[in-house]
């Protein structure tokens, strides 16, 4: 099944069927700028991130498919919760440790 993505590039007014690879590539093309506060801001939704890496992960969320973009997974028994940034992951692990 092919996905669609809107609002990116010159074809913003048209829907185009994309393969998964094309969809992810297009999502990564979403422009971002450095905000006045030093954060990196997604021009599509205005979300701000601290690093380029965090912004790339964010941009993948604009793809229309449910694509897991989480980099950290809790390995504690019966947990498996996922996180896309290390600070949230470390805070979660500390809760397990008590």
Model description:
This protein has 98 residues and is an alpha+beta fold. The chain folds into two domains: 1-67, no CATH class; 70-98. Helix content is 31%, strand content 18%. The protein contains three helices and seven strands, in the order E-E-H-E-E-E-H-E-E-H. Strand 6 and strand 7 form a beta hairpin.
Radius of gyration: 16 Å
As a percent range, the share of strand residues is 15-25%
Low-confidence stretches: 1-15
Q: What about the largest sheet?
A: 3 strands, antiparallel
Which oligomeric form is depicted?
Answer: single chain
Give the domain tally. Answer: 2
Which secondary-structure class do the elements indicate? alpha+beta
Order of helices and strands: EEHEEEHEEH
Cα(first) to Cα(last) distance is 44 Å
Secondary structure: number of strands? 7
Q: Write down the overall geometry.
A: flat
In the sheet with the most strands, the strands line up as 3-4-5
State the helical fraction.
Answer: 25-40%
Which key features would you list for this structure?
alpha+beta, 18% strand, 2 domains, 3 helices, 98 residues, two-stranded antiparallel sheet, 7 strands, flat, three-stranded antiparallel sheet
């Amino acid at each position: 099944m092919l996905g669609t993505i809107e609002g990116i590039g010159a074809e913003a007014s048209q829907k185009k069927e994309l393969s998964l690879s094309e969809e992810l590539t297009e999502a990564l093309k979403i422009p971002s700028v450095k905000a006045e506060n030093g954060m990196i801001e997604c021009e599509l939704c205005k979300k701000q991130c601290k690093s380029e890496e965090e912004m790339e992960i964010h941009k993948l969320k604009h793809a229309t498919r449910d694509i897991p973009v989480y980099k950290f997974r809790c390995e504690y028994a019966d947990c498996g919760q996922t996180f896309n940034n290390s600070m949230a992951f470390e805070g979660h692990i500390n809760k397990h440790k008590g």
